[in-house]
């Protein structure tokens, strides 16, 4: 069965897109069929993957994106939803992309109204389940093992919908004050979203696109974008890494647990629980991001020729190896926790 995993935090700048890309690529390299979904109208994931072909893609393939995929439901056309042709990432045969679209945000208002007033406006009853049905059609078409959803940094109705239709969620964070504040905010938001989902499963069960009967489960956090000294986070970052960990453990986890949003305890690795349910600590990419973007590859897939020469090559080889180990371990843990 396809597992849908959303990467969500309403704080920006926490590398949701980079993590989605690198984790999805690694799962695909391990033999899993993976669909990446760019659900952010800014389309950063799409831009990262398409590179210089970005503009031409939308001209040549105007209907192969997330907005076009759900348009029949939102535009009330007499055509059922169907699976689009995903973009096949050339360098990885198991990895596909549902490109984003800036116009996806046009559906925020009708979806928000549908979430709130579905009982009084019957014509809106198909909207809450449309995104889920669209993703299910893609999963069937491509026999996907995983769908990874890159979401925008907001508390929008589309994000609420995507979160609640997912099987699991990851919370990317950065080691700073605002990530701590964001986690405290999610402590209030996520239980309310799950309470809405419980209602939606009943309210929309007879619609053309029923809302899925599932509770979104917490896989853990990822903390990234920090500098390291002697193999460890520098002291300034270590303070906030610990603060994020404590806030997750003492504030977020008890609240979402009350709504049934935690996995069976046996699924969590003890060492990760002790570190605030953190699945990976990912330092900054130390100049490899531009090379990654030029090569349209994850940092750990870059060749020696793409890294440089001499001392620079030696330094980057070590950094590349570090990220290969980090994302290999992250992919294994995600796979084990979702089986």
List keywords for this structure.
two-stranded antiparallel ribbon; single chain
Describe the protein's architecture and organization.
The protein is α/β, with parallel strands linked by helices and 339 residues long. It has one domain: Rossmann fold. Helix content is 49%, strand content 14%. It is built from 13 helices and ten strands. Strands 3-4-2-5-1-6-7-10 form an eight-stranded mixed sheet, sandwiched between helices. Strands 8-9 form a two-stranded antiparallel sheet. The protein starts with a strand and ends with a helix.
Strand tally is 10
CATH class: Alpha Beta
CATH fold-level assignment:
Rossmann fold
Listing every helix as H and every strand as E from the N terminus to the C terminus, the arrangement reads EHEHHHEEHHEHEHEEEHHEHHH
Summarize this structure briefly:
By secondary structure, the chain is of the alpha/beta class.
Task: Describe the secondary-structure layout.
Layout: E1 3-7, H1 16-29, E2 34-39, H2 44-50, H3 54-60, H4 66-74, E3 87-88, E4 95-98, H5 108-117, H6 130-142, E5 146-151, H7 157-165, E6 168-173, H8 177-203, E7 217-224, E8 228-229, E9 232-233, H9 235-257, H10 270-274, E10 278-282, H11 288-295, H12 304-307, H13 310-338
Parallel strand pairs: 1-5, 1-6, 2-4, 2-5, 6-7, 7-10
Antiparallel strand pairs: 3-4, 8-9
Helix pairs in contact: 1-13, 8-9
